[in-house]
Protein backbone atom coordinates (compact mmCIF):
# COMPACT_ATOMS: atom_id res chain seq x y z
CA UNK A 1 0.00 0.00 0.00
CA UNK A 2 1.44 3.43 -0.88
CA UNK A 3 2.36 5.73 2.00
CA UNK A 4 -0.07 8.46 0.88
CA UNK A 5 -2.95 5.99 1.27
CA UNK A 6 -1.66 4.91 4.69
CA UNK A 7 -1.64 8.58 5.70
CA UNK A 8 -5.20 9.17 4.52
CA UNK A 9 -6.49 6.05 6.28
CA UNK A 10 -4.55 6.93 9.43
CA UNK A 11 -6.12 10.40 9.50
CA UNK A 12 -9.66 9.30 8.67
CA UNK A 13 -10.05 6.43 11.14
CA UNK A 14 -9.68 8.47 14.35
CA UNK A 15 -11.98 11.14 12.94
CA UNK A 16 -14.61 8.44 12.27
CA UNK A 17 -14.26 7.23 15.84
CA UNK A 18 -14.59 10.80 17.05
CA UNK A 19 -17.61 11.45 14.85
CA UNK A 20 -19.36 8.41 16.23
CA UNK A 21 -18.61 9.51 19.77
CA UNK A 22 -19.76 13.04 18.97
CA UNK A 23 -23.20 11.70 18.04
CA UNK A 24 -23.69 10.33 21.56
CA UNK A 25 -22.19 13.43 23.14
CA UNK A 26 -24.33 15.89 21.20
CA UNK A 27 -27.55 14.02 21.92
CA UNK A 28 -26.78 14.07 25.65
CA UNK A 29 -25.25 17.54 26.13
CA UNK A 30 -28.58 19.32 25.92
CA UNK A 31 -30.40 16.92 28.22
CA UNK A 32 -28.84 14.54 30.74
CA UNK A 33 -25.43 16.26 30.92
CA UNK A 34 -27.05 19.59 31.87
CA UNK A 35 -28.84 18.00 34.80
CA UNK A 36 -25.86 16.39 36.53
CA UNK A 37 -23.48 18.03 38.97
CA UNK A 38 -20.11 18.88 37.43
CA UNK A 39 -16.91 20.08 39.10
CA UNK A 40 -15.89 23.72 38.95
CA UNK A 41 -13.09 22.89 36.48
CA UNK A 42 -15.48 21.44 33.88
CA UNK A 43 -14.55 23.15 30.56
CA UNK A 44 -17.20 24.82 28.41
CA UNK A 45 -18.95 22.39 26.06
CA UNK A 46 -17.73 24.19 22.92
CA UNK A 47 -14.10 23.36 23.78
CA UNK A 48 -14.40 19.59 23.41
CA UNK A 49 -14.96 19.49 19.64
CA UNK A 50 -11.87 21.48 18.61
CA UNK A 51 -9.68 19.71 21.17
CA UNK A 52 -10.74 16.23 20.07
CA UNK A 53 -10.46 17.08 16.38
CA UNK A 54 -6.89 18.27 16.93
CA UNK A 55 -6.01 15.23 19.03
CA UNK A 56 -7.43 12.85 16.42
CA UNK A 57 -5.25 14.48 13.77
CA UNK A 58 -2.15 14.10 15.96
CA UNK A 59 -3.08 10.48 16.71
CA UNK A 60 -3.59 9.79 13.02
CA UNK A 61 -0.17 11.16 12.15
CA UNK A 62 1.37 9.05 14.94
CA UNK A 63 -0.37 5.96 13.56
CA UNK A 64 0.89 6.75 10.07
CA UNK A 65 4.49 7.12 11.28
CA UNK A 66 4.32 3.68 12.88
CA UNK A 67 2.49 2.12 9.91
CA UNK A 68 5.02 3.34 7.34
CA UNK A 69 7.97 2.07 9.36
CA UNK A 70 9.81 -1.18 8.71
CA UNK A 71 10.02 -1.99 12.39
CA UNK A 72 9.54 -5.71 13.17
CA UNK A 73 7.03 -4.85 15.92
CA UNK A 74 4.90 -2.66 13.63
CA UNK A 75 1.89 -5.01 13.65
CA UNK A 76 1.91 -5.28 17.44
CA UNK A 77 2.21 -1.51 17.80
CA UNK A 78 -0.67 -0.91 15.40
CA UNK A 79 -2.76 -3.45 17.30
CA UNK A 80 -2.03 -1.60 20.53
CA UNK A 81 -2.95 1.69 18.83
CA UNK A 82 -6.24 0.30 17.51
CA UNK A 83 -7.19 -1.24 20.86
CA UNK A 84 -6.79 2.13 22.56
CA UNK A 85 -8.70 3.76 19.69
CA UNK A 86 -11.53 1.25 20.22
CA UNK A 87 -11.65 2.11 23.93
CA UNK A 88 -11.71 5.77 22.98
CA UNK A 89 -14.59 5.00 20.65
CA UNK A 90 -16.74 3.28 23.27
CA UNK A 91 -16.21 5.88 25.99
CA UNK A 92 -18.74 8.43 24.65
CA UNK A 93 -21.50 5.86 24.08
CA UNK A 94 -20.91 4.56 27.61
CA UNK A 95 -20.62 7.90 29.40
CA UNK A 96 -23.13 9.94 27.38
CA UNK A 97 -25.23 7.35 25.54
CA UNK A 98 -25.83 5.14 28.58
CA UNK A 99 -25.57 8.14 30.93
CA UNK A 100 -23.09 6.21 33.04
CA UNK A 101 -20.11 8.06 34.52
CA UNK A 102 -19.15 4.81 36.29
CA UNK A 103 -18.95 2.85 33.04
CA UNK A 104 -17.09 5.78 31.47
CA UNK A 105 -14.58 5.60 34.31
CA UNK A 106 -14.18 1.84 33.88
CA UNK A 107 -13.34 2.46 30.20
CA UNK A 108 -11.20 5.60 30.48
CA UNK A 109 -8.74 4.26 33.05
CA UNK A 110 -7.46 1.37 30.87
CA UNK A 111 -7.52 3.79 27.93
CA UNK A 112 -5.18 6.07 29.85
CA UNK A 113 -2.82 3.16 30.53
CA UNK A 114 -2.85 2.07 26.87
CA UNK A 115 -2.06 5.59 25.68
CA UNK A 116 0.91 5.67 28.04
CA UNK A 117 2.08 2.28 26.74
CA UNK A 118 1.70 3.51 23.14
CA UNK A 119 3.93 6.48 23.91
CA UNK A 120 6.57 4.21 25.44
CA UNK A 121 6.42 1.57 22.69
CA UNK A 122 6.28 4.08 19.80
CA UNK A 123 9.45 5.88 20.91
CA UNK A 124 12.01 3.35 19.58
CA UNK A 125 10.20 3.29 16.22
CA UNK A 126 9.45 7.00 15.86
CA UNK A 127 10.09 9.63 18.50
CA UNK A 128 7.71 11.91 16.56
CA UNK A 129 4.93 9.32 16.84
CA UNK A 130 5.59 9.07 20.55
CA UNK A 131 5.54 12.84 21.10
CA UNK A 132 2.40 13.28 19.00
CA UNK A 133 0.55 11.08 21.50
CA UNK A 134 1.58 13.16 24.53
CA UNK A 135 -1.15 15.84 24.17
CA UNK A 136 -3.69 13.00 23.91
CA UNK A 137 -2.34 11.50 27.15
CA UNK A 138 -2.58 14.91 28.82
CA UNK A 139 -6.18 15.46 27.69
CA UNK A 140 -7.32 11.95 28.62
CA UNK A 141 -5.62 12.39 32.01
CA UNK A 142 -7.70 15.53 32.51
CA UNK A 143 -10.79 13.76 31.15
CA UNK A 144 -10.20 10.92 33.63
CA UNK A 145 -10.16 13.34 36.55
CA UNK A 146 -13.27 15.03 35.16
CA UNK A 147 -15.00 11.67 34.65
CA UNK A 148 -14.11 10.58 38.19
CA UNK A 149 -15.33 13.90 39.62
CA UNK A 150 -18.65 13.65 37.80
CA UNK A 151 -19.10 10.08 39.03
CA UNK A 152 -18.20 11.13 42.58
CA UNK A 153 -20.53 14.14 42.59
CA UNK A 154 -23.47 12.24 41.22
Question: How does this model look, in words?
Answer:
The protein is mainly alpha-helical and 154 residues long. It has one domain (3-153): TspO/MBR protein (Ferritin), CATH 1.20.1260.100. The chain contains 7 helices and no strands. Helix 5 (101-122) packs antiparallel against helix 7. It is elongated and about 50 Å long. The chain starts with a helix and ends with a helix. The mean pLDDT is 97.
What characteristic shape results from the CA principal axes? elongated
CATH architecture: Up-down Bundle
E-strand count: 0
* Uncertain ranges: none
Element pattern in H and E = HHHHHHH
Radius of gyration, CA atoms, in whole angstroms: 16 Å
Q: Give the helix tally.
A: 7
Distance between termini?
Answer: 49 Å
CATH-derived topology: Ferritin
Looking at CATH, the homologous superfamily is TspO/MBR protein
Q: Give average pLDDT, whole number.
A: 97
- Tally of individual domains: 1
User: Any idea of the CATH class?
Assistant: Mainly Alpha
Strand portion? under 5%
Helix content: over 70%
Classification by helices and strands: mainly alpha
What can be said about the biggest beta sheet?
Answer: none
Amino acid sequence: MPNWLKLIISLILPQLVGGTGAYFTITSIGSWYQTITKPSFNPPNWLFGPVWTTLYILMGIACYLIWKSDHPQKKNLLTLYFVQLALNGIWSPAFFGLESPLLGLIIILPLLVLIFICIQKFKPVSSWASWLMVPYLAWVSFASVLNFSIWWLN
